[in-house]
Design brief:
Length: 99
């Protein structure tokens, strides 16, 4: 995963797995990489090849945890695999999808 940007909104991309084995590492990387001045995080999920309930959970947790820091999380691109997983998830708990 890459986290890019030097403005108030950063972008995370090259995420290929949102599974139980990768979810906590992704969460830790995102939280530790966000500078204190960031107020937005755009998640590009167009490269996601695998996603499970843990991956859905980490997206929900990132939205909640970062909102507590004043950071808005959005999903800006979705792979077909991620789209299929989202069809079975409670979208109200996930970051908004703005494609």
């Amino acid at each position: 995963m890459n986290i890019l940007g030097d403005g108030p909104t950063l972008s995370a991309n090259s995420i290929t797995q949102l599974t139980a084995g990768a979810a906590q590492a992704i969460r830790k990387q995102v939280v530790s990489a966000l500078p204190p001045w960031a107020n937005g995080l755009d998640l590009d999920l167009s490269a996601v090849e695998q996603i499970d309930d843990s991956g859905i959970g980490i997206l929900r947790d990132l939205r909640r945890d970062l909102a507590g820091r004043g950071v808005t999380v959005r999903i800006v691109a979705v792979s077909p695999v991620a789209q299929e997983a989202f069809e079975h998830a409670d979208l109200a708990e996930l970051p908004p999808i703005v494609t």
